[in-house]
């Protein structure tokens, strides 16, 4: 009798719950899908060659923050990257090693660099990203015995590697030589200069011992484990500031992702630590 009563009560309770639910399933309501933050995004980033090691490492960590964002990098000299953007290459985010290369793309430029009135930069997103230093690096054991920039005008020097003039580090190098009164034309006439298309190539030449020395960034000297014998002092060359900006040459759907990645690069503690760990100063 007790079992029968218990069974009747159970059935009555089940019917009551069904009536209250209006016949609907008790499973949770479905979540919204396709929100902008969850949609897959392909982000195209053009960056100066001297940023390759750090940005590659940071991007791997960023996957944990934004797993829907796939980042495609192109690393080269800032002048080459500028030219590719001008020629129509898709670029969502540009990180240059020099202001002039960014100015040439920015309608807000006030330096007179943008003579063609190019309008490829979202000017309100442009920031001074990091600062670097220019140094004189030598191969292991320093066979030529070069100890300073001043030695570049002496018989100690047989071959110096510089970045091309269109490469930011090349421009800074020429400023240093000019400040010290070292005639680059005479070095060229004496066969004492060889040029590279970006700073990584200069560092590679020094690392391989193909040249007596090279003028590069402090961060590349760190990455390539090179011996630094001198560092440009204030006034020897322009301040080495890397600007960064979201680009109008990118895809509309990647604009917000480009801004989010740029914000992450110079505000996230881990990203900042990686950049400063190799010698950058995050601004």
From TrEMBL:
GO terms for molecular function: metal ion binding; molybdate ion binding. Pfam families: SBP_bac_11 (PF13531). Molybdate binds at residues 50, 78, 199, 217. One of its GO terms (biological process) is molybdate ion transport. The keyword Metal-binding applies. The keyword Amino-acid biosynthesis does not apply. Keywords: Metal-binding, Molybdenum, Signal. Residues 1-18 form the signal peptide. InterPro entries: ModA, ModA/WtpA. Transmembrane segments: none annotated. Belongs to the bacterial solute-binding protein ModA family. This is Molybdate ABC transporter substrate-binding protein. It comes from Candidatus Intestinimonas pullistercoris.
């Amino acid at each position: 009798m007790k079992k029968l009563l218990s069974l009747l009560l159970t059935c009555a309770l089940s019917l009551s719950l069904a009536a209250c639910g209006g016949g609907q399933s008790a499973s949770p309501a479905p979540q919204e899908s396709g929100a902008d933050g969850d949609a897959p995004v392909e982000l195209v980033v053009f960056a100066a060659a001297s940023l390759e090691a750090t940005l590659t490492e940071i991007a791997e960590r960023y996957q944990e923050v934004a797993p829907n964002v796939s980042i495609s990098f192109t690393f080269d000299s800032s002048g080459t990257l500028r030219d590719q953007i001008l020629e129509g290459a898709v670029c969502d985010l540009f990180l240059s090693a020099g202001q002039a290369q960014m100015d040439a793309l920015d309608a807000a430029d006030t330096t007179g660099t943008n003579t063609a009135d190019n309008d490829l930069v979202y000017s309100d997103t442009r920031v001074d990203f990091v600062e670097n230093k220019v140094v004189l690096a030598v191969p292991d054991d320093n066979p030529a015995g070069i100890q300073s920039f001043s030695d570049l005008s002496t018989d100690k020097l047989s071959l110096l590697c510089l970045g091309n003039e269109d490469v930011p580090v090349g421009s800074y190098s020429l400023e240093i030589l000019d400040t010290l009164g070292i005639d680059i034309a005479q070095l060229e006439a004496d066969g004492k200069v060889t040029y590279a298309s970006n700073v990584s190539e200069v560092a590679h030449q020094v690392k391989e011992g193909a040249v007596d020395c090279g003028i590069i960034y402090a961060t590349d000297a760190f990455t390539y484990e090179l011996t630094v014998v001198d560092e440009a002092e204030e006034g020897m060359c322009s301040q080495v500031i890397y600007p960064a900006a979201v680009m109008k040459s990118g895809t509309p759907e990647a604009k917000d992702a480009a801004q989010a990645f740029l914000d992450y690069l110079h505000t996230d503690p881990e990203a900042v630590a990686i950049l400063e760990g190799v010698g950058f100063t995050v601004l």
